[in-house]
Amino acid sequence: MLKLTKCWAQYDDDGECIDDSTDDIELSFRDLIDLIRYCHESSCYPSTGSINEWVYLSRDDDYHNGGQTEETLHYDRGQPERRAKYWRKAFEYVGIVR
């Protein structure tokens, strides 16, 4: 099981965070693939699959008030190093790393 952190944040029209939350989750490799299968945007471009990168699960713009809501998934660096390869392999499998 991979330990991950799921983050949610809401920003106002000036880019200031007005609300946020985090959840620590554990997923199997297959569940991770299912979760990020349609997410083709990471925090870096070009993506390398580094454990310092995160993937955007959703990003919604509120055109009425200029704010933004985003949900991201981060690798938890507090686990054994041998598990980091699965983070990169998941990025490769879904096409984030090319």
Your description of this structure?
The chain is an alpha+beta fold and 98 residues long. It has one domain (2-94). 19% of the residues lie in helices and 40% in strands. It has two helices and four strands, in the order ββαββα. The chain has helices at residues 29-36, 84-94; strands at 2-11, 17-27, 54-62, 67-75. The protein has a four-stranded antiparallel β-sheet. The longest helix has 11 residues, at 84-94. The protein is globular, with a radius of gyration of 14 Å. The two termini are 25 Å apart. The model has no long low-confidence stretch (mean pLDDT 89).
Task: Produce a short descriptive summary.
This protein has one domain (2-94). 19% of the residues lie in helices and 40% in strands.
Structural class: alpha+beta
Radius of gyration from the alpha-carbon trace, in angstroms:
14 Å
Whole-number count of domains: 1
Give the overall shape, derived from the CA principal axes.
globular
How do the helices and strands line up, and which of them pair or pack?
Elements (H helix, E strand, L loop, with lengths): L1 E10 L5 E11 L1 H8 L17 E9 L4 E9 L8 H11 L4
Antiparallel strand pairs: 1-2, 1-4, 3-4
Which key features would you list for this structure?
single chain, 98 residues, alpha+beta, 4-stranded antiparallel β-sheet, 4 strands, globular
